[in-house]
Amino acid sequence: MATAEHKHPNYMAIFWYLAILTVIEIAVIYMPLAKFTIGVLLCALALSKAVLVAMYFMHLRFERRTLGMVAITPLVIATLLVFVLLPDGFAVMKRTVGVKATATEPAKR
Amino acid sequence: MSQAASMHGAVEPAESPLTPESWGKLGMWIFLAGDAVGFGTLLAGYGAMRATSADWPSPFEVLGINLTALMTFLLICSSVTMVKALEWLGKGDKTRAIRFLFFTALGGAIFVSLQAYEWTHLIHRGLHINGNPWGASLFGTSFFLVTGFHGLHVTGGVIYLLSIMRVVARRPSPAASYNAVEITGLYWHFVDLVWIMVFTFMYLL
User: Nearest Cβ partner of A2 from B20, B84, B196?
Assistant: First the structure.
């Protein structure tokens, strides 16, 4: 039979890791840290949770490595997209802030 | 040749290159990669809009995270019941596999119900798709769009799980439905994975 069964990892251990990481995530937002540090920590925690789910629950660890390339592509695209969108966003912000400034000017007179 | 294929008398033209067990699994992975680009686009757009907005409200103060933390926990639990269903099926125990598939579907159904409750609550407090009392109107737009898109995925997943329960129950040998359940699991864990991202980026950050 070709359906080679995967070696089942210890799912309960993964569950506890995920639960603990979630608790840490919630704890992090109440910590007296700089906003940037909190952001970096949250991104790292979310990514490690995602990696745990993909590797063990979705069995990616036991698949061929090329399948991992299929899985990782969207993450790369989404990350790049943020940087593609930011210039547009800043341009819009500049313009709306400018519009607001000129709109309030005549009111002062 | 896989057992499922020989049962249906279908001819598999060649072995799937990345997933030797079945083509279906490769198909699901490629679908999920595409779907992930969809979610990635929404979250990237959210990030860019938020970064360039002057009056974006602080999400965890407006939305509250107690209920959502519970929902996150629930979805992680349902992922565990999903892998347990597959594990039991691999051991040849159809009854337990079906029971755990049912638990998984139940977890998803409760998740969607809690989301409906959360939405109702937030709408009553003034969070609308075109404006809110706290700041940038796009906050509400993106919140309902992203969580709604995810909620639809969970709803679809519950229907998917219930259908696959029927498949497992009908096929005489547990091994014949192993592959189908594994593919269902991929979808379900993906929905969980996306929620991990949504919870972090839209509620906590």
Answer: B20
pLDDT in tens, A14-57: 999 999 999 999 999 888 988 889 999 999 999 999 999 999 99
Mean pLDDT of B38-44: 94
Give the global pTM: 0.88
- Residue in chain A lying closest to B23 (CA): A3
A43, A54, A75 ranked by CB distance to B40: nearest: A75
The span from the CA of A109 to the CA of A63, in Å, is: 70
- B3-11+18-204, CATH topology level: Four Helix Bundle (Hemerythrin (Met), subunit A) (1.20.120)
What is the spatial distance between Cα B167 and Cα A5, in angstroms, rounded to a whole number?
Answer: 19
Task: Compute the distance between CA of residue B120 and CA of residue A75 in angstroms, rounded to an integer.
Answer: 32
CB–CB contact A85 B44 (8 Å):
yes
Torsion of CA A64, A69, A72, A74, to 10 degrees: -130
Helix B138-170 vs helix B23-51: crossing angle, to nearest 10: 170
How far apart CA B21 and CA A43 sit, in angstroms, is 34
